TrEMBL record:
PANTHER family: DEOXYGUANOSINETRIPHOSPHATE TRIPHOSPHOHYDROLASE (PTHR11373:SF32), DEOXYNUCLEOSIDE TRIPHOSPHATE TRIPHOSPHOHYDROLASE (PTHR11373). InterPro entries: dGTP_triP_hydro_central_sf, dGTP_triphosphohydrolase_C, dGTPase, dGTPase-like, HD/PDEase_dom, HD_domain, PHydrolase_assoc_dom. It holds the Pfam family HD_assoc. This is dGTPase. One of its GO terms (molecular function) is dGTPase activity. It comes from the Bacteria.
Amino acid sequence: METMSWQQLLAAKRWGYESRSIDDQHDARSEFQRDYDRLIFSSPFRRLQNKTQVFPLPGSVFVHNRLTHSLEVASVGRSLGRIFYNEMRKMNPDIDNELPYLQEVGNIVSAACLSHDLGNPAFGHSGEAAISNYFTDGAGSEYSRQVTPAEWADLIHFEGNANALRILTHPFTGKDKNGYALTYSTLAAIVKYPCSSPDGHMPHHHRKKYGFFQSERHVFDKIARELGLLRDAENPAVYKRHPLVYLVEAADDICYNIIDLEDAHRLNILSYDEVVQLLLPLCRDEKLGSRLAQLEDLDSRVSLLRAKAINTLIVACADVFVKEQWRILQGRFDRPLIDAIDERLRIAMRRIAEVSVSRIYNAPAVVQIEVAGYKVMNGLLEEFIPAYLKSKKTKYDAKLVALMPKQFHTEQESIYAKIRSVLDFVSGMTDLYAVELYRKIKGISFPSLD
């Protein structure tokens, strides 16, 4: 049976600098540690600080935003990668000589985790929905006849996962033409759904959504060929996942399921007793009861429960990855790692998911920010897209376009490329900037002269 190979999957070749020789011997950082550092210092990553995770951005009570979430996911991802490497080394003490980059799996996964939400617009998933709705049911529906069917599929299903790959590789005007020049392995580990929009939205897990826009199809094709990703037997235009995607996905699944409970407790949406009932089944520590009794502060108790629960899930998911790695390398493993852990843990996670949907994701504050964000994102697109597409611009159109930074302008003439440029601008906004700009262009507020 055809299979992927770790030897080929772990490549330090860097996007845009493929001909450069790799030599880590005299450097303090490996190529994959460089990926992590480039992302940490990047503007798109910093902007995650002001993008909603679940709850509205903090007032008097601090809750997670996209940046803190991504940092925590990266921490969990590194642990998952290190456990896998350690287990492989136990099975084969000579593994470092045979697969010298295997010891870098933790660094690759943590870098991919840092960027897994990089393409998400403001206001969480409601931002994605608002962008899609502009084209399906809003004023943007008129452009359906001016783009190809595949391009239209991109627009009516805006996907943050695909947008992350674009941010990292697209030659934005005035920027480095090679994007952030990350390694091929890190880029592949970001793409959860290795297919384009017309091939996504299918029952198979690796096709649940899609992972690259039409504008980046050539990018992912090149990465896939270099790393030896398998093609889907049912559809040669679709690839099987890079195996490390499973670890990135598991890190995200672990964090958002558990940490949303911690935020809900801080905001008095869930009581301490409710959180205990949800997290305790995930905590495998005989001394946990005595440790909790020593803590008077309830937030500290919840933090301890959260840490123990995450540790249990890390070990469980890493165990599945090690045991299933051959099926994964053959492209035959078609579900998240967290869905294959011990049944008792799965039952506990299902209960957390049920409570999260009923009590957290439908909490009034969460719904309010989603509704407001929907209105803001749609309003911005209604203003900027027609203005940017017009060949004969009014003075108002010209002034709107002037508000778009140079990096978001394109010299391409196609309608799709121009729309994509506006979406780059709007989707990159933070929650606060989007609201502020919306209020100003709608005349609700006026800019300060300070």
